[in-house]
């Protein structure tokens, strides 16, 4: 009998296809309703820190340098109140193969795929992860397919995504470029079914565990070089794996550094809208991913995401597009460092946050990414202008995503805007109830304990929220 290739037919085989393509039986960790055993899943399907360090070392991943940004710190101190202006550092993940921290995830995924005997790997991603998987697959001698949501319906693509396609192809991957819409997941599932390749999802336990080495290295490097841990670590947050893995690594190193998430504010722009797709200048690290994934992580391409940022985040801030463009240029002209947009999102936030901290404190931007052709500020700003976006100097607080990009008239105008974490926590609890179709008075004790862990709160907080629903 021939396969049902209709959209509904393929979707109905989703669980079966995924199980074959990842090799994890997620049902083992389920406990019935909302709760599942996250730590057991991480323990039994991931790798230990030592194993990951070894896997990554063999493929030249990790052990990236820490750089102190003395000139940027001096600028922050010039505009900070007396006695304020923490030292600003970056962990230079652009020094990794493929140019970003994403290769820490890819190294583990590709190692795991090879160990299980898969002939190839597939990843659905428009960003750095595609290049990272392509790079690791090339080195491991596995075939690689990258599925990208790339164009709007007129066939116009974001310069950064187009560049990423080139990079993936240069690294030997087959790149399947799609327009915005639900066909991405459909095509992805069909490809997995047709090829029998491994799903190198961004959200598997081994992928997320791959980022733990990053957090661990930060703690160890700071202790060796500066005799103490950094006070705050800023992580650019989208799907949540970056922050989750880094925080877990820091905790494994015994560090209690404050974990701050940062996303570019794209409020009002709809990610799945064909018309708005090309109105944004950032393809990741923005609130269009950060908000939905933080308030409900299990919306990814695996049944239970290993990226659960709300479990770890201490503070969450947003920063505007114009501020990130501005800090990118400041970094290049004051420090001679050219880095890409996602890491610079955290850098713009760190520049503002350092001004709240004491001079003897240290804040580290947990990752940088490479920049080049399509990722540079010039092609991005030209593309924005071609898409009808006004670009001018002024007060970044007045920026409206999709309408304008406001470059700050003065560096003192760069501000990290706090997101109300309790609102996010309440959304998370509401989403859990909606997903499992449970009423507030039906939530059992074990689900309450789970929701308390998920939201980094306690059972009383969860009970209070439930009583208001
Ligand atoms: C360089 C870089 N930094 C940060 C992020 C955000 O990571 P996550 O989606 O795990 O939150 C991405 C994801 O695309 C990235 O490519």
The global form is globular
Number of strand elements: 13
**What is the correct CATH architecture of the largest domain?**
3-Layer(aba) Sandwich
Helix segment count? 18
Beta-strand percentage range = 5-15%
Major beta sheet, strand line-up: 1-2-10-7-8-9-13
State the CATH topology of the largest domain: Rossmann fold
The count of domains is 3
Approximate helicity band = 40-55%
**Radius of gyration of CA atoms, rounded to a whole number:** 21 Å
| Average of per-residue pLDDT values | 95
Structural class category: alpha/beta
The residue ranges in which pLDDT falls below 50 over 5 or more consecutive positions are none
**Terminal CA distance:** 49 Å
- CATH class descriptor of the largest domain: Alpha Beta
Largest sheet: 7 strands, mixed
Query: Which compounds are bound in this model?
Result: pyridoxal-5'-phosphate
Quick summary of this structure?
This protein has helices at residues 7-12, 14-22, 38-45, 49-58, 70-79, 102-115, 128-140, 159-170, 183-195, 205-226, 241-252, 287-295, 321-335, 341-354, 377-386, 421-435, 445-454, 459-468, and strands at 66-68, 87-91, 120-124, 143-151, 174-179, 198-199, 232-236, 258-264, 315-319, 362-365, 390-394, 404-408, 417-418. The mean pLDDT is 95.
Describe the structure.
By secondary structure, the protein is an alpha/beta fold. It has 3 domains: 7-24 and 101-203, Rossmann fold; 57-99 and 206-418, Rossmann fold; 424-468, no CATH class. It is 45% helix and 13% strand. It is built from 18 helices and 13 strands. The chain has helices at 7-12, 14-22, 38-45, 49-58, 70-79, 102-115, 128-140, 159-170, 183-195, 205-226, 241-252, 287-295, 321-335, 341-354, 377-386, 421-435, 445-454, 459-468; strands at residues 66-68, 87-91, 120-124, 143-151, 174-179, 198-199, 232-236, 258-264, 315-319, 362-365, 390-394, 404-408, 417-418. The strands form 3 sheets. The protein has a 7-stranded mixed beta sheet, sandwiched between helices. It has a 4-stranded parallel beta sheet with strand order 5-4-3-6, with helices on both faces. α6 packs across α10 (205-226), α7 (128-140) packs parallel to α8 (159-170) and α13 crosses α14. The chain is globular and about 70 Å long. It starts with 6 loop residues before the first helix and ends with a helix. Pyridoxal-5'-phosphate binds at residues 100, 102, 127-128, 236-243, 284-285, 307, 342-343, 367, 369.
């Amino acid at each position: 009998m021939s396969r049902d290739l209709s959209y509904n037919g393929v979707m109905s085989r989703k669980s079966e296809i995924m199980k074959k393509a990842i090799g994890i039986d997620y049902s083992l960790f389920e406990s019935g309703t909302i709760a599942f055993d996250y730590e057991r899943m991480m323990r039994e399907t991931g790798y230990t820190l030592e194993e990951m360090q070894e896997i990554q070392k063999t493929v030249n991943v990790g052990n990236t340098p820490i750089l102190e940004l003395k000139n940027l710190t001096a600028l922050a101190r010039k505009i900070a109140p007396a006695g304020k202006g923490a030292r600003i550092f970056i962990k230079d993940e652009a020094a990794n193969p493929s140019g970003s921290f994403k290769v820490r995830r890819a190294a583990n995924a590709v190692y795991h795929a090879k160990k299980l005997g898969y002939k190839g790997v597939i990843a659905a991603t428009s960003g750095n992860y595609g290049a990272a998987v392509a790079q690791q697959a090339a080195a491991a001698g596995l075939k690689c397919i990258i599925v990208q949501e790339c164009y709007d319906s007129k066939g116009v693509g974001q310069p950064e995504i187009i560049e990423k396609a080139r990079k993936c192809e240069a690294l030997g991957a087959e790149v399947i470029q799609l327009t915005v819409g639900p066909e991405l997941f459909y095509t992805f599932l069909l490809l997995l079914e047709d090829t029998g390749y491994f799903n190198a999802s961004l959200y598997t336990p081994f992928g997320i565990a791959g980022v733990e080495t990053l957090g661990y290295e930060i703690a160890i490097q700071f202790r060796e070089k500066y005799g103490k841990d950094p006070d705050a670590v800023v992580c650019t947050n989208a799907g949540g794996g970056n922050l989750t893995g880094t925080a877990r690594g820091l905790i494994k190193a015994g560090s209690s550094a404050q974990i701050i998430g940062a996303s570019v504010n794209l409020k009002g722009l709809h990610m799945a809208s064909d018309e708005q797709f090309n109105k944004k200048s950032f393809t990741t690290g923005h609130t269009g991913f950060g908000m939905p994934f933080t308030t409900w992580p299990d919306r990814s391409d695996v049944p239970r995401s290993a990226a659960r940022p709300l479990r770890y985040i201490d503070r969450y801030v947003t920063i505007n597009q114009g501020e990130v463009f501005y800090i990118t240029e400041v970094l290049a002209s004051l420090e001679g460092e050219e880095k890409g947009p996602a890491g610079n999102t955290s850098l713009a936030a760190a520049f503002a946050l350092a001004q709240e901290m004491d001079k003897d404190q240290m804040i580290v931007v947990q990752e940088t990414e490479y920049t080049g052709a399509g990722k540079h500020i010039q092609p991005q700003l030209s593309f924005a202008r071609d898409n009808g976006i006004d670009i001018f100097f002024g007060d970044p607080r007045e920026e409206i995503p999709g309408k304008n990009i406001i470059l700050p008239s003065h560096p003192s105008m760069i501000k990290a805007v706090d997101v109300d974490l309790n609102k996010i926590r309440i959304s998370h609890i509401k989403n859990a109830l909606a997903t499992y179709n449970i009423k507030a008075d039906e939530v059992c004790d074990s689900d309450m304990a789970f929701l308390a862990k998920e939201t980094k709160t306690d059972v009383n907080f969860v009970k209070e929220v439930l009583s208001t629903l």
